[in-house]
Amino acid sequence: MQEKEENQNLEDPYGEVVEEYDESRKGVCGCLCIPVHWFRMLSREMHWSFVFGVIVIYGVSQGLGGALSSVGTKYYMKDVQKVQPSEAQVYAGITYIPWIVKPLWGLLTDVLPIFGYRRRPYFILAGLIGVIGMLLLSLHKNLHLVLALLSLTAGSAGVAIADVTIDACVAQNSISHPSLAADMQSLCALSSSVGALLGFSISGIFVHLMGPMGVFGLITIPAGLVILVGFVLQEPHMPNFAYNQVNQKFIDASLAMWRTLKSEEVWRPCLYMYLSLALSLNILEGMFYWYTDKEAGPAFSEKTIGFMFSVGSVGSLLGAILYQYALKDYAFRDLLFWTQLFFGLSGMLDLIIVLRLNLMFGMPDYVFIVIVESVAQMTNRLKWMPMLVLSSKLCPSGIEGTFFALLMSIDNAGVLSASWAGGILLHVLKITRTKFDNLWIAILIRNILRITPLCLLFLVPKADPNSSILPSECMASNMVVEVDNSETENIELVSLVNNVDGK
Questions:
Q1: Closest to 343 (Cα-Cα) out of 425, 445, 472, 453
Q2: Ordered alpha helix ranges (H), 76-119
Q3: Which helix (H) or strand (E) holds 17?
Q4: 81-90, 106-115, 166-175, 465-474: lowest mean pLDDT where?
Q5: Chain centroid to CA 227: how far?
Q6: If residue 34 lies in a helix (H) or strand (E), which one and from where to where?
Q7: Does 343 map to a domain?
Q8: How much is the pTM?
Q9: CA 230 – CA 162 distance, rounded (Å)
Q10: Which residues pair with 117 in a beta bridge?
Q11: How far is CA 232 from CA 265, 366, 483, 494, in A?
Q12: Distances (CA, A) of 127 to 50, 168, 226
Protein backbone atom coordinates (compact mmCIF):
# COMPACT_ATOMS: atom_id res chain seq x y z
CA MET A 1 0.00 0.00 0.00
CA GLN A 2 2.81 2.38 0.91
CA GLU A 3 4.58 1.69 -2.38
CA LYS A 4 1.34 2.28 -4.29
CA GLU A 5 0.80 5.66 -2.59
CA GLU A 6 4.39 6.65 -3.34
CA ASN A 7 3.92 5.73 -7.00
CA GLN A 8 0.74 7.78 -7.15
CA ASN A 9 2.52 10.74 -5.59
CA LEU A 10 5.30 10.45 -8.11
CA GLU A 11 2.83 10.34 -10.95
CA ASP A 12 0.79 13.33 -9.76
CA PRO A 13 2.94 16.04 -11.38
CA TYR A 14 2.91 14.25 -14.69
CA GLY A 15 -0.81 13.63 -14.34
CA GLU A 16 -1.39 17.36 -13.98
CA VAL A 17 0.65 18.03 -17.11
CA VAL A 18 -1.27 15.39 -19.05
CA GLU A 19 -4.58 16.78 -17.80
CA GLU A 20 -3.63 20.33 -18.78
CA TYR A 21 -2.47 19.09 -22.18
CA ASP A 22 -5.75 17.22 -22.71
CA GLU A 23 -7.72 20.33 -21.76
CA SER A 24 -5.74 22.46 -24.19
CA ARG A 25 -6.28 19.89 -26.92
CA LYS A 26 -9.99 19.90 -26.18
CA GLY A 27 -10.04 23.68 -26.37
CA VAL A 28 -8.30 23.75 -29.75
CA CYS A 29 -10.39 20.90 -31.11
CA GLY A 30 -13.51 22.55 -29.77
CA CYS A 31 -12.78 25.71 -31.73
CA LEU A 32 -12.04 23.71 -34.86
CA CYS A 33 -15.19 21.64 -34.43
CA ILE A 34 -17.54 24.62 -34.18
CA PRO A 35 -17.96 24.90 -37.98
CA VAL A 36 -18.39 21.12 -38.22
CA HIS A 37 -21.13 21.15 -35.58
CA TRP A 38 -22.76 24.09 -37.36
CA PHE A 39 -22.81 22.26 -40.69
CA ARG A 40 -24.16 19.14 -38.98
CA MET A 41 -26.88 21.18 -37.30
CA LEU A 42 -27.96 22.69 -40.63
CA SER A 43 -27.85 19.28 -42.28
CA ARG A 44 -29.92 17.77 -39.49
CA GLU A 45 -32.52 20.53 -39.49
CA MET A 46 -32.88 20.95 -43.26
CA HIS A 47 -31.29 17.77 -44.65
CA TRP A 48 -27.67 17.46 -45.70
CA SER A 49 -28.59 17.77 -49.37
CA PHE A 50 -29.68 21.38 -48.92
CA VAL A 51 -26.22 22.22 -47.59
CA PHE A 52 -24.66 20.35 -50.50
CA GLY A 53 -26.75 22.25 -53.03
CA VAL A 54 -25.87 25.62 -51.53
CA ILE A 55 -22.15 24.80 -51.59
CA VAL A 56 -22.26 23.72 -55.25
CA ILE A 57 -24.26 26.69 -56.54
CA TYR A 58 -22.91 29.44 -54.30
CA GLY A 59 -19.42 28.11 -53.66
CA VAL A 60 -18.39 26.48 -56.93
CA SER A 61 -20.55 28.13 -59.59
CA GLN A 62 -20.88 31.67 -58.22
CA GLY A 63 -17.83 31.83 -55.94
CA LEU A 64 -15.09 29.99 -57.83
CA GLY A 65 -16.52 30.44 -61.32
CA GLY A 66 -17.56 34.02 -60.66
CA ALA A 67 -14.06 34.95 -59.46
CA LEU A 68 -12.41 33.45 -62.54
CA SER A 69 -14.98 35.13 -64.78
CA SER A 70 -14.56 38.52 -63.10
CA VAL A 71 -10.79 38.71 -63.54
CA GLY A 72 -10.86 37.04 -66.96
CA THR A 73 -13.51 39.45 -68.25
CA LYS A 74 -11.59 42.52 -67.05
CA TYR A 75 -8.47 41.48 -68.96
CA TYR A 76 -10.54 40.28 -71.93
CA MET A 77 -12.15 43.71 -72.33
CA LYS A 78 -8.89 45.57 -71.73
CA ASP A 79 -6.39 43.48 -73.70
CA VAL A 80 -8.47 41.53 -76.26
CA GLN A 81 -11.38 43.86 -77.10
CA LYS A 82 -9.38 47.00 -76.13
CA VAL A 83 -12.34 49.09 -74.93
CA GLN A 84 -12.32 52.21 -72.77
CA PRO A 85 -12.98 51.88 -68.99
CA SER A 86 -16.31 53.72 -69.27
CA GLU A 87 -17.39 51.30 -72.03
CA ALA A 88 -16.22 48.30 -70.02
CA GLN A 89 -18.28 49.55 -67.07
CA VAL A 90 -21.41 49.77 -69.24
CA TYR A 91 -20.75 46.36 -70.81
CA ALA A 92 -20.41 44.87 -67.33
CA GLY A 93 -23.91 46.16 -66.65
CA ILE A 94 -25.23 44.56 -69.85
CA THR A 95 -23.97 41.12 -68.81
CA TYR A 96 -25.87 41.65 -65.55
CA ILE A 97 -29.26 41.92 -67.27
CA PRO A 98 -30.17 38.20 -66.79
CA TRP A 99 -30.14 38.87 -63.06
CA ILE A 100 -32.72 41.62 -63.51
CA VAL A 101 -35.26 39.18 -64.97
CA LYS A 102 -34.88 36.63 -62.17
CA PRO A 103 -38.63 36.69 -61.47
CA LEU A 104 -39.13 35.14 -64.92
CA TRP A 105 -36.86 32.23 -64.05
CA GLY A 106 -38.60 31.98 -60.67
CA LEU A 107 -42.05 31.81 -62.26
CA LEU A 108 -40.90 29.15 -64.69
CA THR A 109 -39.42 26.94 -61.99
CA ASP A 110 -42.46 27.41 -59.74
CA VAL A 111 -45.32 26.81 -62.18
CA LEU A 112 -43.96 25.22 -65.38
CA PRO A 113 -42.55 21.70 -64.95
CA ILE A 114 -40.62 20.17 -67.86
CA PHE A 115 -41.12 16.44 -68.44
CA GLY A 116 -42.85 16.30 -65.07
CA TYR A 117 -40.02 17.91 -63.07
CA ARG A 118 -39.89 21.43 -61.63
CA ARG A 119 -36.20 21.79 -60.74
CA ARG A 120 -34.03 19.30 -62.62
CA PRO A 121 -34.52 20.66 -66.15
CA TYR A 122 -33.71 24.22 -65.11
CA PHE A 123 -30.44 23.24 -63.46
CA ILE A 124 -29.49 21.27 -66.58
CA LEU A 125 -30.53 24.15 -68.85
CA ALA A 126 -28.54 26.63 -66.78
CA GLY A 127 -25.42 24.49 -66.95
CA LEU A 128 -25.71 23.96 -70.71
CA ILE A 129 -26.12 27.68 -71.39
CA GLY A 130 -23.05 28.42 -69.30
CA VAL A 131 -20.93 25.75 -70.98
CA ILE A 132 -21.87 26.89 -74.49
CA GLY A 133 -21.24 30.58 -73.74
CA MET A 134 -17.84 29.98 -72.17
CA LEU A 135 -16.73 27.57 -74.89
CA LEU A 136 -17.55 30.12 -77.57
CA LEU A 137 -15.42 32.75 -75.81
CA SER A 138 -12.52 30.39 -75.23
CA LEU A 139 -12.34 28.87 -78.73
CA HIS A 140 -12.95 31.92 -80.95
CA LYS A 141 -9.85 34.15 -81.13
CA ASN A 142 -11.34 37.09 -83.07
CA LEU A 143 -14.85 37.15 -81.67
CA HIS A 144 -16.81 40.31 -82.47
CA LEU A 145 -17.60 42.50 -79.48
CA VAL A 146 -21.36 41.98 -79.90
CA LEU A 147 -21.00 38.19 -79.95
CA ALA A 148 -18.60 38.37 -77.02
CA LEU A 149 -21.18 40.32 -75.01
CA LEU A 150 -23.86 37.80 -75.95
CA SER A 151 -21.63 34.93 -74.80
CA LEU A 152 -20.80 36.67 -71.53
CA THR A 153 -24.50 37.42 -71.02
CA ALA A 154 -25.35 33.77 -71.73
CA GLY A 155 -22.85 32.65 -69.10
CA SER A 156 -24.37 35.12 -66.67
CA ALA A 157 -27.86 33.83 -67.51
CA GLY A 158 -26.79 30.27 -66.72
CA VAL A 159 -25.56 31.30 -63.28
CA ALA A 160 -28.72 33.37 -62.69
CA ILE A 161 -31.09 30.49 -63.53
CA ALA A 162 -29.22 28.16 -61.18
CA ASP A 163 -29.16 30.87 -58.53
CA VAL A 164 -32.90 31.49 -58.60
CA THR A 165 -33.57 27.77 -58.16
CA ILE A 166 -31.37 27.45 -55.10
CA ASP A 167 -32.76 30.75 -53.82
CA ALA A 168 -36.19 29.11 -53.80
CA CYS A 169 -34.80 26.44 -51.49
CA VAL A 170 -33.31 29.08 -49.19
CA ALA A 171 -36.54 31.10 -49.06
CA GLN A 172 -38.63 27.97 -48.50
CA ASN A 173 -36.46 26.82 -45.63
CA SER A 174 -36.39 30.34 -44.19
CA ILE A 175 -40.17 30.12 -43.85
CA SER A 176 -40.23 26.60 -42.43
CA HIS A 177 -37.24 27.31 -40.13
CA PRO A 178 -37.49 31.05 -39.31
CA SER A 179 -34.95 30.84 -36.49
CA LEU A 180 -32.33 29.58 -38.96
CA ALA A 181 -32.90 32.25 -41.64
CA ALA A 182 -29.73 34.12 -40.68
CA ASP A 183 -27.76 30.85 -40.50
CA MET A 184 -28.83 29.95 -44.03
CA GLN A 185 -27.69 33.31 -45.35
CA SER A 186 -24.42 32.80 -43.50
CA LEU A 187 -24.05 29.41 -45.19
CA CYS A 188 -24.62 31.04 -48.58
CA ALA A 189 -22.19 33.85 -47.82
CA LEU A 190 -19.50 31.54 -46.44
CA SER A 191 -19.76 29.21 -49.43
CA SER A 192 -19.56 32.13 -51.82
CA SER A 193 -16.66 33.75 -49.96
CA VAL A 194 -14.59 30.57 -49.73
CA GLY A 195 -15.21 29.80 -53.40
CA ALA A 196 -14.32 33.36 -54.37
CA LEU A 197 -11.18 33.21 -52.24
CA LEU A 198 -10.01 30.12 -54.06
CA GLY A 199 -11.05 31.48 -57.44
CA PHE A 200 -9.32 34.85 -57.04
CA SER A 201 -6.21 33.13 -55.64
CA ILE A 202 -5.71 31.19 -58.86
CA SER A 203 -7.27 33.66 -61.31
CA GLY A 204 -4.21 35.86 -61.73
CA ILE A 205 -1.95 32.86 -62.26
CA PHE A 206 -4.23 31.34 -64.89
CA VAL A 207 -4.73 34.66 -66.69
CA HIS A 208 -0.95 35.03 -66.80
CA LEU A 209 -0.37 31.46 -68.05
CA MET A 210 -3.41 30.90 -70.28
CA GLY A 211 -4.77 34.35 -71.01
CA PRO A 212 -8.39 35.42 -70.42
CA MET A 213 -9.70 33.09 -73.14
CA GLY A 214 -8.12 30.10 -71.42
CA VAL A 215 -9.77 31.14 -68.16
CA PHE A 216 -13.15 31.11 -69.91
CA GLY A 217 -12.45 27.51 -70.87
CA LEU A 218 -11.88 26.63 -67.21
CA ILE A 219 -15.24 28.13 -66.24
CA THR A 220 -16.98 25.35 -68.17
CA ILE A 221 -16.12 23.08 -65.22
CA PRO A 222 -18.31 24.92 -62.66
CA ALA A 223 -21.03 25.13 -65.32
CA GLY A 224 -20.77 21.37 -65.79
CA LEU A 225 -21.22 20.84 -62.05
CA VAL A 226 -24.48 22.77 -62.28
CA ILE A 227 -25.62 20.16 -64.82
CA LEU A 228 -24.63 17.48 -62.31
CA VAL A 229 -26.83 19.08 -59.66
CA GLY A 230 -29.73 18.84 -62.11
CA PHE A 231 -29.17 15.11 -62.54
CA VAL A 232 -28.86 14.30 -58.82
CA LEU A 233 -31.75 16.46 -57.66
CA GLN A 234 -34.49 14.36 -56.07
CA GLU A 235 -38.02 15.61 -56.59
CA PRO A 236 -41.42 14.05 -57.25
CA HIS A 237 -42.31 13.24 -60.82
CA MET A 238 -45.62 14.71 -62.04
CA PRO A 239 -46.55 12.81 -65.21
CA ASN A 240 -50.15 14.08 -65.23
CA PHE A 241 -49.43 17.73 -64.63
CA ALA A 242 -52.20 19.96 -65.97
CA TYR A 243 -50.28 22.14 -68.42
CA ASN A 244 -53.51 23.78 -69.52
CA GLN A 245 -53.57 25.51 -66.12
CA VAL A 246 -50.12 27.07 -66.48
CA ASN A 247 -51.51 30.39 -67.73
CA GLN A 248 -53.81 30.60 -64.74
CA LYS A 249 -50.93 29.79 -62.40
CA PHE A 250 -48.86 32.58 -63.94
CA ILE A 251 -51.76 34.96 -63.34
CA ASP A 252 -52.25 33.74 -59.76
CA ALA A 253 -48.55 34.09 -59.01
CA SER A 254 -48.43 37.59 -60.51
CA LEU A 255 -51.46 38.69 -58.50
CA ALA A 256 -50.00 37.22 -55.31
CA MET A 257 -46.72 39.04 -55.90
CA TRP A 258 -48.49 42.32 -56.59
CA ARG A 259 -50.68 41.94 -53.49
CA THR A 260 -47.57 41.40 -51.38
CA LEU A 261 -45.44 44.04 -53.06
CA LYS A 262 -47.99 46.83 -52.60
CA SER A 263 -48.04 46.21 -48.86
CA GLU A 264 -46.29 49.04 -47.01
CA GLU A 265 -44.25 46.55 -44.97
CA VAL A 266 -42.76 45.25 -48.24
CA TRP A 267 -42.38 48.09 -50.73
CA ARG A 268 -40.68 50.43 -48.25
CA PRO A 269 -37.67 48.15 -47.53
CA CYS A 270 -37.58 47.22 -51.24
CA LEU A 271 -37.25 50.89 -52.14
CA TYR A 272 -34.46 51.31 -49.62
CA MET A 273 -32.56 48.28 -50.93
CA TYR A 274 -32.74 49.57 -54.50
CA LEU A 275 -31.68 53.12 -53.65
CA SER A 276 -28.86 52.05 -51.32
CA LEU A 277 -27.36 49.99 -54.14
CA ALA A 278 -28.06 52.42 -56.97
CA LEU A 279 -26.45 55.32 -55.11
CA SER A 280 -23.25 53.33 -54.54
CA LEU A 281 -21.79 54.11 -57.96
CA ASN A 282 -19.63 51.37 -59.44
CA ILE A 283 -16.35 52.64 -60.91
CA LEU A 284 -14.38 49.41 -60.53
CA GLU A 285 -13.42 49.29 -64.20
CA GLY A 286 -11.81 52.71 -63.96
CA MET A 287 -9.92 51.58 -60.84
CA PHE A 288 -8.82 48.37 -62.59
CA TYR A 289 -7.42 50.27 -65.57
CA TRP A 290 -5.56 52.56 -63.15
CA TYR A 291 -4.20 49.59 -61.17
CA THR A 292 -2.64 48.10 -64.31
CA ASP A 293 -1.40 51.35 -65.91
CA LYS A 294 2.40 51.61 -66.07
CA GLU A 295 2.61 55.40 -65.89
CA ALA A 296 -0.24 56.82 -63.81
CA GLY A 297 -0.92 53.76 -61.66
CA PRO A 298 1.08 51.16 -59.73
CA ALA A 299 1.27 48.80 -62.77
CA PHE A 300 0.08 45.67 -60.97
CA SER A 301 0.62 42.37 -62.79
CA GLU A 302 -2.00 39.67 -63.38
CA LYS A 303 -0.76 37.70 -60.38
CA THR A 304 -0.92 40.77 -58.16
CA ILE A 305 -4.46 41.56 -59.31
CA GLY A 306 -5.57 37.99 -58.56
CA PHE A 307 -3.91 38.05 -55.16
CA MET A 308 -5.43 41.44 -54.41
CA PHE A 309 -8.95 40.19 -55.13
CA SER A 310 -8.31 36.98 -53.19
CA VAL A 311 -7.38 39.00 -50.11
CA GLY A 312 -10.59 40.93 -50.68
CA SER A 313 -12.42 37.61 -50.52
CA VAL A 314 -10.82 36.99 -47.13
CA GLY A 315 -12.34 40.26 -46.01
CA SER A 316 -15.70 39.11 -47.34
CA LEU A 317 -15.33 35.84 -45.47
CA LEU A 318 -14.48 37.68 -42.26
CA GLY A 319 -17.54 39.83 -42.77
CA ALA A 320 -19.74 36.74 -43.09
CA ILE A 321 -18.22 35.22 -39.94
CA LEU A 322 -18.59 38.48 -38.03
CA TYR A 323 -22.24 38.71 -39.03
CA GLN A 324 -22.94 35.08 -38.10
CA TYR A 325 -21.37 35.16 -34.64
CA ALA A 326 -21.86 38.77 -33.55
CA LEU A 327 -24.40 40.74 -35.59
CA LYS A 328 -27.14 38.44 -36.91
CA ASP A 329 -29.57 39.16 -34.05
CA TYR A 330 -29.44 42.97 -34.29
CA ALA A 331 -32.43 44.90 -35.63
CA PHE A 332 -32.31 45.56 -39.37
CA ARG A 333 -32.41 49.34 -39.14
CA ASP A 334 -29.65 49.60 -36.51
CA LEU A 335 -27.34 47.22 -38.34
CA LEU A 336 -27.90 48.82 -41.75
CA PHE A 337 -27.11 52.26 -40.31
CA TRP A 338 -23.64 51.25 -39.13
CA THR A 339 -22.81 49.04 -42.12
CA GLN A 340 -23.82 51.75 -44.61
CA LEU A 341 -21.81 54.35 -42.70
CA PHE A 342 -18.68 52.18 -42.61
CA PHE A 343 -19.21 51.29 -46.27
CA GLY A 344 -19.14 54.95 -47.23
CA LEU A 345 -16.14 55.77 -45.05
CA SER A 346 -14.15 52.78 -46.34
CA GLY A 347 -14.38 54.22 -49.86
CA MET A 348 -12.08 57.04 -48.76
CA LEU A 349 -9.22 54.53 -48.79
CA ASP A 350 -9.44 54.48 -52.60
CA LEU A 351 -9.00 58.24 -52.58
CA ILE A 352 -5.82 57.92 -50.50
CA ILE A 353 -4.15 55.49 -52.89
CA VAL A 354 -5.19 57.31 -56.08
CA LEU A 355 -3.74 60.55 -54.69
CA ARG A 356 -0.66 58.49 -53.66
CA LEU A 357 -0.91 59.76 -50.09
CA ASN A 358 0.04 56.30 -48.86
CA LEU A 359 3.53 56.78 -50.32
CA MET A 360 3.96 59.91 -48.22
CA PHE A 361 3.59 57.72 -45.13
CA GLY A 362 5.98 55.10 -46.48
CA MET A 363 3.33 52.47 -47.21
CA PRO A 364 3.83 50.71 -50.57
CA ASP A 365 0.92 50.51 -53.02
CA TYR A 366 0.92 46.72 -52.83
CA VAL A 367 0.45 46.66 -49.05
CA PHE A 368 -2.10 49.45 -48.97
CA ILE A 369 -4.27 48.02 -51.74
CA VAL A 370 -4.50 44.73 -49.84
CA ILE A 371 -5.88 46.66 -46.86
CA VAL A 372 -8.26 48.60 -49.11
CA GLU A 373 -9.70 45.49 -50.73
CA SER A 374 -10.07 43.63 -47.43
CA VAL A 375 -11.92 46.48 -45.74
CA ALA A 376 -14.08 47.17 -48.81
CA GLN A 377 -15.19 43.56 -49.20
CA MET A 378 -15.82 43.09 -45.49
CA THR A 379 -17.99 46.19 -45.21
CA ASN A 380 -19.81 45.32 -48.44
CA ARG A 381 -20.59 41.83 -47.11
CA LEU A 382 -21.80 43.23 -43.79
CA LYS A 383 -24.06 45.65 -45.67
CA TRP A 384 -25.41 42.98 -48.00
CA MET A 385 -26.20 40.14 -45.57
CA PRO A 386 -28.90 41.84 -43.46
CA MET A 387 -30.63 42.87 -46.70
CA LEU A 388 -30.63 39.22 -47.81
CA VAL A 389 -32.12 38.11 -44.51
CA LEU A 390 -34.70 40.89 -44.76
CA SER A 391 -35.57 39.78 -48.29
CA SER A 392 -36.14 36.19 -47.17
CA LYS A 393 -38.47 37.48 -44.44
CA LEU A 394 -40.61 39.30 -47.02
CA CYS A 395 -41.45 36.18 -49.06
CA PRO A 396 -45.03 34.82 -48.79
CA SER A 397 -45.50 31.08 -48.59
CA GLY A 398 -46.40 29.36 -51.85
CA ILE A 399 -44.47 31.69 -54.15
CA GLU A 400 -41.37 32.11 -52.02
CA GLY A 401 -39.01 31.24 -54.87
CA THR A 402 -40.60 33.65 -57.32
CA PHE A 403 -40.97 36.48 -54.84
CA PHE A 404 -37.43 36.11 -53.53
CA ALA A 405 -36.28 36.27 -57.16
CA LEU A 406 -38.34 39.46 -57.55
CA LEU A 407 -36.67 41.01 -54.53
CA MET A 408 -33.24 39.99 -55.80
CA SER A 409 -34.06 41.45 -59.21
CA ILE A 410 -34.83 44.75 -57.48
CA ASP A 411 -31.42 44.59 -55.81
CA ASN A 412 -29.80 43.62 -59.11
CA ALA A 413 -31.53 46.56 -60.79
CA GLY A 414 -29.82 48.73 -58.20
CA VAL A 415 -26.47 47.12 -59.03
CA LEU A 416 -27.11 47.67 -62.75
CA SER A 417 -28.04 51.30 -62.15
CA ALA A 418 -24.86 51.79 -60.13
CA SER A 419 -22.76 50.21 -62.88
CA TRP A 420 -24.23 52.29 -65.70
CA ALA A 421 -24.17 55.49 -63.64
CA GLY A 422 -20.53 54.77 -62.83
CA GLY A 423 -19.78 54.30 -66.53
CA ILE A 424 -21.43 57.61 -67.34
CA LEU A 425 -19.45 59.31 -64.56
CA LEU A 426 -16.17 57.92 -65.94
CA HIS A 427 -17.12 59.15 -69.42
CA VAL A 428 -18.12 62.63 -68.23
CA LEU A 429 -14.87 63.01 -66.28
CA LYS A 430 -12.92 61.87 -69.39
CA ILE A 431 -11.27 58.93 -67.66
CA THR A 432 -9.80 56.76 -70.46
CA ARG A 433 -7.37 53.87 -70.88
CA THR A 434 -4.41 56.19 -70.34
CA LYS A 435 -5.83 59.32 -68.68
CA PHE A 436 -6.75 59.24 -64.98
CA ASP A 437 -6.41 62.86 -63.87
CA ASN A 438 -10.03 63.06 -62.70
CA LEU A 439 -10.27 59.60 -61.14
CA TRP A 440 -10.04 61.09 -57.65
CA ILE A 441 -13.12 63.23 -58.38
CA ALA A 442 -15.08 60.12 -59.40
CA ILE A 443 -14.07 58.43 -56.13
CA LEU A 444 -15.09 61.45 -54.08
CA ILE A 445 -18.51 61.68 -55.77
CA ARG A 446 -19.05 57.95 -55.24
CA ASN A 447 -18.15 58.18 -51.56
CA ILE A 448 -20.52 61.08 -50.94
CA LEU A 449 -23.38 59.21 -52.62
CA ARG A 450 -22.66 56.12 -50.50
CA ILE A 451 -23.56 58.07 -47.37
CA THR A 452 -26.90 59.39 -48.66
CA PRO A 453 -28.89 56.14 -48.01
CA LEU A 454 -28.58 56.90 -44.30
CA CYS A 455 -31.33 59.47 -44.83
CA LEU A 456 -33.63 56.71 -46.09
CA LEU A 457 -33.36 54.27 -43.19
CA PHE A 458 -36.86 55.16 -42.03
CA LEU A 459 -38.02 52.84 -44.87
CA VAL A 460 -36.47 49.82 -43.11
CA PRO A 461 -38.44 48.06 -40.34
CA LYS A 462 -37.08 48.10 -36.79
CA ALA A 463 -37.76 44.38 -36.49
CA ASP A 464 -35.02 41.86 -35.72
CA PRO A 465 -34.26 38.80 -37.92
CA ASN A 466 -36.16 36.44 -35.59
CA SER A 467 -39.52 38.19 -35.91
CA SER A 468 -42.14 38.09 -38.63
CA ILE A 469 -42.45 41.12 -40.91
CA LEU A 470 -45.17 40.25 -43.42
CA PRO A 471 -48.76 41.20 -42.55
CA SER A 472 -51.13 38.28 -42.01
CA GLU A 473 -52.93 38.77 -45.34
CA CYS A 474 -49.63 38.28 -47.20
CA MET A 475 -48.32 35.30 -45.28
CA ALA A 476 -49.89 32.71 -47.57
CA SER A 477 -50.43 32.64 -51.29
CA ASN A 478 -53.40 31.11 -53.06
CA MET A 479 -51.09 29.55 -55.61
CA VAL A 480 -50.25 26.00 -54.64
CA VAL A 481 -48.05 23.75 -56.71
CA GLU A 482 -49.47 20.28 -57.22
CA VAL A 483 -46.89 18.13 -55.50
CA ASP A 484 -46.88 15.87 -52.52
CA ASN A 485 -46.48 17.82 -49.29
CA SER A 486 -44.05 15.31 -47.90
CA GLU A 487 -41.79 15.99 -50.83
CA THR A 488 -41.92 19.78 -50.66
CA GLU A 489 -40.90 20.24 -47.05
CA ASN A 490 -37.28 20.25 -48.17
CA ILE A 491 -35.50 20.13 -51.50
CA GLU A 492 -33.34 17.04 -51.27
CA LEU A 493 -30.41 15.96 -53.40
CA VAL A 494 -29.58 12.29 -53.68
CA SER A 495 -26.04 11.07 -53.43
CA LEU A 496 -24.18 9.74 -56.42
CA VAL A 497 -23.59 6.57 -54.44
CA ASN A 498 -25.80 4.90 -51.82
CA ASN A 499 -24.91 5.41 -48.18
CA VAL A 500 -23.50 2.42 -46.31
CA ASP A 501 -26.39 2.36 -43.85
CA GLY A 502 -28.90 2.52 -46.67
CA LYS A 503 -30.46 5.78 -45.51
A1: 453
A2: 85-94, 97-100, 102-111
A3: helix 2-46
A4: 465-474
A5: 20
A6: helix 2-46
A7: yes
A8: 0.70
A9: 9
A10: 114
A11: 38, 44, 19, 6
A12: 19, 18, 5
Q: Look at the chain and report how many structural domains it folds into.
A: 1
Report yes or no on 385 lying in a domain.
yes
Is the pLDDT confidence value at 15 over 90? no
Higher pLDDT, 497 or 475: 475
345 vs 339: CA distance, rounded Å: 10
Round to whole Å and give the CA distance between 310 and 303: 10
For residues 265 and 405, is the Cβ–Cβ distance under 8 A?
no
Q: Give the mean pLDDT of the chain.
A: 79
Cβ pair 312, 373 in contact under 8 A: yes
Confirm if 380 and 411 have CB atoms less than 8 A apart. no
Q: What is the share, in percent, of the chain residues with pLDDT greater than 70? A: 83
DSSP string across 111-137? H--BTTBSSHHHHHHHHHHHHHHHHHH
Count of other CB atoms within 10 angstroms of residue 303: 15
Q: Which of 123, 387, 396 is nearest to 272 (CA)?
A: 387
Tens digit of each residue's pLDDT (9 = 90 or more) over 297-323: 888 888 888 877 777 777 877 887 888
Beta carbons of 388 and 163 less than 8 angstroms apart: no
The predicted pLDDT at position 225 comes to: 86
* Euclidean distance between CA atoms 60 and 66, whole angstroms: 8
280: domain CATH number?
1.20.1250.20
Model confidence at 245: pLDDT above 50:
yes
CB–CB of 290/434 below 8 Å?
A: no
**CA nearest neighbour of 115 among 106, 124, 102, 103:** 124
Q: At residue 33, what is the residue type?
A: C
The number of C-alpha atoms within 13 Å of 451 and in the hemisphere containing its C-beta is 10
Q: Select from 424, 494, 442 the least CA-distant residue to 86.
A: 424
Domain range holding 184? Answer: 44-491
257 occurs within a structural domain:
yes
Residue 313 lies in a domain: yes
Which residues lie closer than 8 Å to 275 by C-beta, 6 or more apart?
A: 414, 453, 456
